[in-house]
Amino acid sequence: AGWDAGAVPRLDFPTTAVRDSFLAGERAMCEEEGAPTAWLDEAAADFGRLVASRSGPRRRWGVPVTELWYVRGPDYYGTVMIRHELTSALRHDGGNVGYHVVPGYRRQGHATAMLAAACDRCRADGMARLLVTCRTDNVASRRVIEANGGVLDNQDIGICRFWITL
């Protein structure tokens, strides 16, 4: 298969090597959340274009963003978004790092490993502190953030804000 089955998943730039797994995982997530899936049909038609559009530096939420996928061989586990700056909206909800693990790979420690890898990458990029937010009722995400050194700064209107010192 060209990959080491014993290898641990890693955070990397988007890749066409995980096409089928990405499409299935993201579709399952959209269906779980009741979100539209039409974008996945477009992605399936030209997956190379989707990967190219997400691989390089770009702007989203009004800030420079790096998108990384958590992968092992042909398997896609989830996405990490690193926001290199904060707007007032991101200071409230979103923060510097966002992540999700697709259904089927949850409750296996992947989110904790993904955030740890994102922290390493941000440290290497010269960032000193990261704001990471989650919904107050998202106990799993709170545990992930706290396992990575997140210290609760405040919470209001259903959002918890944590700072991680790198």
Secondary structure elements and pairings:
Layout: E1 10-12, H1 19-33, H2 38-45, H3 47-55, E2 58-60, E3 63-72, E4 75-83, H4 88-92, E5 97-101, H5 110-124, E6 129-135, H6 139-147, E7 151-156, E8 159-165
Antiparallel strand pairs: 1-3, 2-3, 3-4, 4-5, 6-8, 7-8
Molecular structure report:
By secondary structure, this protein is an alpha+beta fold. The chain contains six helices and eight strands. The strands form two sheets. Strands 1, 2, 3, 4 and 5 form a five-stranded antiparallel sheet that branches. Strands 6-8-7 form a three-stranded antiparallel sheet, with helices on one face. Strand 3 and strand 4 form a beta hairpin. Helix 2 crosses helix 3. The longest helix is centred in the first third of the chain and has 15 residues. The mean pLDDT is 94.
Write a compact overview of the structure shown.
By secondary structure, the protein is α+β, with helices and mostly antiparallel strands.
